Amino acid sequence: MNVVKTLLFALLLAVLPASLNAADTKAVGDVATQAGKAVEHAVKDAHGHAEHHGLPPAAARFHIGPLMVTSSMIVTIIVALVIVLVAQMATRNITAVPLGAQNFCEWIVEGMHGFICTLLGEDMGKRTFWFFGTLFFFILFTNWFGLIPGVGTITYGGEPLLRGGNADLNTTSAMAVLFTVLWFYWSISALGVGGFLKHIFAAGGGGKGFMGIFMIAVFFFVGLIEVISIAFRPVSLSFRLFGNVFAGENILESMMVLVPWLGWIIPLPFYFLELLVGIVQALVFTLLTAVFTSLMCSAHGHGEGHGHGHGHHH
Predict the structure, then answer these.
(1) How confident is the model at residue 179 (pLDDT cuts 50, 70, 90)?
(2) Secondary structure in 3-state letters for 241-256
(3) I need a surface site. Which of 16, 148, 153, 176 has the fewest CB within 10 A?
(4) What value, to the nearest 5°, has the Cα angle with vertex 106 and ends 102 and 108?
(5) How far is residue 184's CA from residue 255's CA, in Å, rounded to a whole number?
(6) What is the pLDDT of residues 84-126, one digit of tens each?
(7) At what angle do helices 122-145 and 2-15 cross, to 10 degrees?
């Protein structure tokens, strides 16, 4: 069942940005275009004789009704299909003693599974691994796919044929919004509606008389701050990943044209740095989402594990 969930989720991550793209592509494009223009002007100032076009935020390739399919979305679909194909190949002829692709995939998946279970506990880790595991591998492979020579540099009609998937804010926003929806579902499933609200607005309240009223007021105010923090999580998650990937792409292109006759060697240190950044950003996004889930849902697990006489610790 987890395998089916993983494959479906990989495809969902690839297709979901289309819904956001239809609503806010223009706004995202304006912001990202300004960032691209800033890099372009900086490079032109450094070498006014070089021609530099900059990387557009999201190049439109074709439309499906009102939905605009961009070059970034095409990359996410390709990555999702690659993940599905690799999973199918690794599990096509499963043996008790794994060999080849099965052995390699099991090693990677088991390592990630152990990491998630360490953060969330065994029960919650098994329940949510299909999401966090797929999220990590999807972000990682999407980041690395954007570093393949030709991605972002081969153009048609003045626009890149392919762009890094996470260099489009619609993609990172889709992942952040999807996590937020699942976070509410997991939290309410573990704590109930009453326990969910109590955890936010009365996590530690107590006392009697004036002190009790004072503590209720304090924790209610802290709860309001927590609500604001929860509301901004999708924004911070999406912009953190988008900003790092988009900036990395523009840095690589800028290094290529900084000294034209050395454009083949100057970007190499930055290229290997981006390989590392791809891993780090995938791990950071997955780690933050898992920690947010653990901070809320661990209250349920601790309560079950220690009985009614013990509270949970933060």
Answers:
(1) very high
(2) HHHHHHHHHHHHHHHH
(3) 148
(4) 125
(5) 43
(6) 999 888 888 888 877 888 888 889 999 999 999 999 988 999 9
(7) 40
